[in-house]
Amino acid sequence: MKIKIGSVEENIITRNEFSIEKAREILKNEKISVLGYGVQGPAQSKNLKDNGFNVIIGQRKNTLSWKKALDDGWIEGKNLFSLEKASELGSILMYLLSDAGQISFWKTINKYLTKGKSLYFSHGFGLTFYKKTKINPPNNIDIFLVAPKGSGTSLRRLFKQGNGINSSYAIYQDYSGKSLEKVLSIGIGIGSGYLFKTSFKNEVYSDLVGERGTLMGAIQGIFSAQYQILRENGHSPSEAFNETVEELTQSLMPLVSEKGMDWMYKNCSTTAQRGALDWWKKFKEATIPVFRELYNEVASGNEAKNIIKSNIRKDYRLKLEKELKDLHDSELWEAGSVIRKLRPEK
User: Fold this and answer.
1) Of residues 49, 123, 212, 231, which has the active-site annotation?
2) Count of Cβ atoms closer than 10 Å to residue 43 Cβ
3) SS3 196
């Protein structure tokens, strides 16, 4: 289906155009090995399995993720194997380890990438920054990606509801001449709402900017700043949290999701409309330099360098837990914990 946004025309692939039955037929002779059972692995593997594809799991034994796979019903020796064995058995290897995990396992998986196999990613990091990751695949395999625009948890939840998260897709290397039909089949198989084309580089650039920007980093920064100013001026934790987070997530964002920002404005008070329209450009002007700096850091490879350096530290997990605990224990999110419990049961 072709869509036009302004002067830009794009082609997207919907479930109506590319059916699940067509996807199953294309991949009927493929054994799909999902390597890694952490963030995206559980959702993508279970959705593929439920959609009738031949799926096995590869995971390091005696880890929490191995136990989770067992708890989810995967059976050791039948459809749950070590990373090495699953890499050997699969014809399509879905490389869903963390970026750091992909780097450390690369020398091992590389020997299983024999002629005619396919290598699948859900993130363009490893290949885009190959000079830093040392991930250099052979030239006699297919390489492609599908990147759901959401967490694995959301991908699975929406799949079970009969809905789907939109995903991007890209082809890095088309050895067989059949990479397009393979990548679209997996994209539909994991439950994508629709698929839009990108490149490995554009996927990782937009993803890293988004995660650090409006999806996670910027939004937490704005939450924290507004909450602090309200508290400094005598507002209670409950009032500050409700005006900063609760009203946004529970009332306004669903309206934006439904019909857009202008429609949300129309369904707010005239006082709110006027204030929002007067102030949004000031926030844009204040943050444009930060976003420009962020994009440049991503494009230069500096952000990738910092990620790799941090993630390979032996004490990374300990430091991560402390940072997340500091967030959890902050008054902002302590207020959130209390207020979420007060929401009426659905």
Assistant:
1) 123
2) 25
3) strand
Report d(CA 240, CA 176) in Å as an integer: 57
**H-only helix segments in the chain:** 20-26, 41-50, 64-71, 83-89, 99-110, 125-128, 130-133, 152-160, 179-189, 200-212, 217-232, 237-241, 247, 253-259, 261-266, 270-300, 302-311, 316-329, 331-341
The strand pairing partners of 120, in sequence order, are: 94, 144
The pair of three-digit structure tokens given for residue 260, joined into one six-digit string: 């857009």
Show the domains of the chain with their CATH numbers: 2-198 (3.40.50.720), 211-341 (1.10.1040.10)
* Phi, psi (rounded to 5 degrees) for 280: -65, -35
Compute the distance between CA of residue 247 and CA of residue 251 in angstroms, rounded to an integer: 5
In this predicted model, what pLDDT tens digit does every residue of 93-109 receive, in sequence order?
999 998 889 999 999 99
pLDDT attached to residue 5: 87
Q: Active site includes 235?
A: no
pTM (predicted TM-score):
0.91
Q: What pLDDT does residue 291 have?
A: 97
